[in-house]
TrEMBL record:
SUPFAM superfamilies: PP2C-like. Keywords: Hydrolase, Magnesium, Manganese, Metal-binding, Protein phosphatase. Residues 55-358 form the PPM-type phosphatase domain. The keyword Transmembrane helix does not apply. GO terms for molecular function: metal ion binding; protein serine/threonine phosphatase activity. This is protein-serine/threonine phosphatase. It holds the Pfam family PP2C. Its cofactor is Mn(2+); Mg(2+).
């Protein structure tokens, strides 16, 4: 169910007569915490303070590792609605674990972060950004102290969105990403970055970790430097650093290394866990952005770098815009990400996405002022026309299907990596 010419059929004020009512769908989530294993799972929640309806879906797919066919999915995600029993407070998060205990790290942060955020309800409501900073640092300390998880060389990135009324508070640690789709005047959908990847590609992050003692080199550069040292030669670090960018273009990104060793080799500058890397500036303190939801914001996406490794932010927004059903969009993006990984490499990363559509929850008023019809033109493409306030019903551009049939792809097998409550 797609729209043509890059035009989007997702309208904040739009709801066709054949569209599925998420609250009545048998796929809708109950109030009890459950694990999403069905790629067609559809959930919804309202933000009554601002008349918004959030319709969401999520999908996590285990990576393909030929040398480790039984390797666990190290990604996790959480969708937690009505935090503190507040109908205007909702949390969405994706966590990308790495290292030998990456799965455990990601799940620990997934489970503990909401608990720590909610432990001081007054602080969370008064200053969500400050609450995020304090919660991440607290969870990081707890992870270090956890006797069952060795986070010396393991950890997780995190991208978390807190919806509070008409505000999005986006907390980012690492290289997972959040983007929004914004409807422009020409009916196309433009990307709005809700986060900025924290990697050595960012000059400010690179300078910060270098001041903490990190060497910033590609794997190829650090191996060459180590080999030269064995032979009694010396490659100036400035020379090695200058070569790093060209190697990064060939698929060898700059990484962080201790001064006297070939570890830890992280390609990000912030994470939760990674106790060794903490000594060279890899911190758990998030960057937090506050974005007010406007009538032009029609959806937002959170995803691990398994999605954004080969898809651009605008590319993801374009793909979402072709589908009125978030379940189909998630499946399509995961499938395309998987395909692109195998096109470029012999393996794939774990791939996780949460998609949240932002709609007007009121059917009266918004429908009366924004009536649309779908008109077929000569080349069999579809055009959207606004009508005067006359009709009480409207046809769907591409309606949500009433069918509960699963939309599965041969290369996509969902993993029980996330929780929804």
């Amino acid at each position: 169910m797609g729209c043509v010419n890059g035009k989007c059929c997702l309208r904040r004020w739009y709801r066709g007569p054949h569209s599925q009512n998420p609250s009545s769908s048998r796929h809708a989530n109950s109030s009890r915490c459950q694990i999403i294993t069905d790629p067609t799972t559809l959930g919804s929640t309202q933000v009554p303070s601002h008349g918004l309806l959030l319709q969401y879906s999520a999908l996590s797919h285990r990576g393909h590792y030929p040398d480790s066919p039984d390797r666990e999915n190290q990604d996790s995600f959480i969708i937690k609605t009505e935090l503190l029993s507040n109908p205007n407070l909702h949390l969405f998060g994706v966590f990308d674990g790495h290292g030998a205990f990456g799965t455990e790290c990601a799940r620990f942060v997934r489970d503990r972060l909401p608990e720590v955020l909610c432990a001081d309800s007054v602080a969370l409501i008064a200053d969500p950004a400050k609450a995020f900073h304090e919660a991440f640092l607290t969870v990081n300390s707890e992870l270090h102290d956890n006797p069952d998880i060795d986070d010396l060389m393991s950890g997780t990135t995190a991208i978390v969105v807190l919806v509070y009324g008409d505000m999005l508070y986006v907390a980012n640690v690492g290289d997972s990403r959040a983007v929004a789709g914004v409807l422009s005047g020409d009916d196309s959908v433009k990307v709005e970055d809700l986060s900025s990847d924290q990697t050595p590609f960012r000059e400010d992050e690179k300078e910060r970790v270098q001041k903490c003692g990190a060497r910033v080199l590609t794997a190829g550069q650090v191996e060459a430097a180590e080999a030269a040292a064995i032979d009694g030669a010396h490659i100036p670090e400035t020379e090695a650093t200058e070569c790093a960018s060209s190697e990064a273009d060939e698929g060898d990104p700059p990484r962080l290394w201790v001064r006297d060793g070939m570890y830890p080799g992280t390609a990000f500058t912030r994470s939760v866990g990674d106790l060794t890397a903490e000594g060279i500036g890899v911190v758990a303190d998030p960057e937090v952005r506050a974005i007010r939801i406007s009538p032009s914001h029609i959806f937002f996406v959170l995803a691990s770098d398994g999605v954004f490794e080969f898809l651009s932010s605008q590319g993801v927004v374009d793909m979402v815009s072709k589908f009125s059903d978030p379940r189909e969009a998630c499946t399509e993006i995961v499938s395309e990400s998987y395909r692109l990984w195998l096109e470029h490499e012999s393996r794939t990363d774990d791939i996780t996405i949460i998609l949240v559509h932002i709609q007007d929850s009121s059917e009266s008023g918004s429908l009366e002022s924004h009536q649309v019809i779908q008109t077929k033109i000569k080349d069999e493409r579809f055009a959207i026309q606004k009508l005067p306030e006359a009709s009480s019903e409207m046809d769907s551009c591409f309606p949500l299907s009433d069918s509960s049939k699963e939309h599965s792809l041969s290369c996509v097998t969902p993993s029980p990596a996330g929780t929804v409550s």
